[in-house]
Amino acid sequence: MNAKRLLYTIWFMTKEEMRLHSAMIGKVGFFFFPVMIFFISFVLSVISPVLLLKIGYVRTLTIIHGVVILYGLGVGGLALAGKEMVERRFGDVALLIQTPSLLPIHYRETFLAFYFKDLIYYLLLSIIPLDIGLVISIPLSHFAISSVLHLSLSILLSFLFSISLSFLISAILTRSKYVGGAVLALFLLSVILALLGFLPLETIFPSVKYQFSHAPTQAIISFLFFILFSVLSAPFVQVRFSSTSEKISGRYQDELKRFAKFSDVPLVPKEMLDMKRSRAIFPMVGSFVVPLLFTYGTIWVIKSALFDIGANTLFYSAMIGFFGMTVYSWQNNIDNLASFQTLPITVPQVIKVKLRLFFILTISISFAFVFIVSIIEKSFLMLPFALLVTLVSLSYTAITTAYLTGLKTNIYLFDAKVLAKFNLMVSIPLTLLCAFSMLLDKIFFVSILILFLISISMLIAAFVMYKRIDDKWLGCSFA
User: Fold this and answer.
1) Number of domains in the chain
2) How far is CA 421 from CA 319, 400, 402, 476, in A?
3) Residue 79 and residue 183 in contact, taking contact as beta carbons nearer than 8 Å
4) Are 236 and 172 within 8 A, CB to CB?
5) Residues 6+ apart with CB under 8 A from 340
6) Looking at the structure, do residues 438 and 309 belong to the same domain, yes or no?
7) pLDDT at position 223, please?
8) Is it the case that residue 205 has pLDDT exceeding 80?
9) Least C-beta-crowded within 10 Å: which of 144, 182, 303, 437?
10) Is the pLDDT of residue 225 over 50?
11) Residues 9, 3: Cα–Cα separation, whole Å
């Protein structure tokens, strides 16, 4: 492997990434994202003395590292993403990772360059602005410079460790789903044991041990693991170009009969048939169910091992709204809609079809989840109101996401302006629902009244936005 050529490839891939995102969301939106990360880091750092008093030093640092580690694990599935980019076409976009099919360069080299490019990208756009926010806040937070620099370094090491580990696991998955799945299951089991207190978190992540022990050897070990995982990942990546055919049951006429009540919108059965044929329903539902179960499990662990945060059935009903956006995002990820440009349909029509399917997929699951939680928490009297809050939070989140992002959710949510609007319009009301649901034990009637007023306000806002989808997206292109 030619080191000079690898560095050139990384450089050009980094420029390619910046151009792609700048073309999609504009240069202002692209560069505003790290500014927003810096601002959030700065504000949290300034108020951190209060948080430390309320939550505790060890717990606060553990939460910070936990968030960074989850972030690294989330963005680290780069081998699977890169494999997808190589084996499939994305319209008229040609990427540098595809060059080995034309030029004398090995796929392992381009994958390694792709990995380091994304590593640089995420460092520049998120981790480094976060660390800068910590350092700049020193005059206001009054923390020692050495402590802040130590925390910044340990956060960087946690991110490097987690993203490289995730990349290694995803690279193994490209060769064997069983081996990769076993490695992933073993790692997740270790994390669960650590959360339950059976295994110290420091034994899994040397960067966390470095945070608390200040031992330079732990920092070196963490960085060596990052190098090891990164070097081992590239040889595991496997790209296969093969032509496969498969017979899948299901006809449009069958789906049309099942969705007879939507006969005025023939796109509904068509979209459902597409989801079945692409086998997207399972990961789509999984992206909704798994976070719900993880949230409940995490809160249960905190409640059992540490303290009761006051989470009840209404709290989980409000939390459902936070995860609704992932399903709508998945719906817009199945097909390339450019071909719709030749059909006598409009963007608002397709948006509303996807919203109908969203409710078909999520309502029954959400109601079942809330019903089971009410049984576990023994709060049957609150079940009717909890179901109402569930319906409100789901409807509001889905319609707000559709109104702001249309059919390009994964693109527009990287636009800082759209992301800021989304956070203001979605996070604030859902957070208020969660907060007042946790106050039921203290101010029951006041909390119920406020929750009811917030729910009604959200329903009205959702109705208004749904009506305005036509005005906002009519005339827009599918391409």
Assistant:
1) 2
2) 19, 10, 13, 20
3) no
4) yes
5) 350, 478
6) yes
7) 92
8) yes
9) 144
10) yes
11) 10
H helical segments located in 214-280: 216-236, 252-258, 267-277
The C-alpha angle 159, 161, 165, rounded to 5 degrees, equals 115
Tell me which DSSP letter residue 415 carries. S
Say which amino acid occupies 213.
Answer: S
Specify whether 232 is located in the same domain as 256: no
Q: Which amino acid does the sequence have at 119? A: L
Kindly state whether residues 195 and 219 are assigned to the same domain: yes
Neighbouring residues of 192: CB distance < 8 A, sequence distance ≥ 6: none
Q: How many CA atoms lie within 13 A of 67 on its CB side?
A: 9
Query: Token pair of 35, please?
Result: 């500014």
d(CA 130, CA 434): 27
pLDDT score for 461: 92
- Residue matched to tokens 């106050």: 439
- How far, in Å, are 146, 280, 425 from residue 44 at the CA level? 18, 38, 21
Question: Would you say 341 and 411 are in contact if contact means Cβ atoms under 8 Å apart?
Answer: no
Q: How many residues does the chain have?
A: 479
Range of the domain at 48: 3-236
Give the pair of three-digit tokens for residue 212.
């608390």
**Residue 381: enclosing H or E segment and its boundaries?**
none
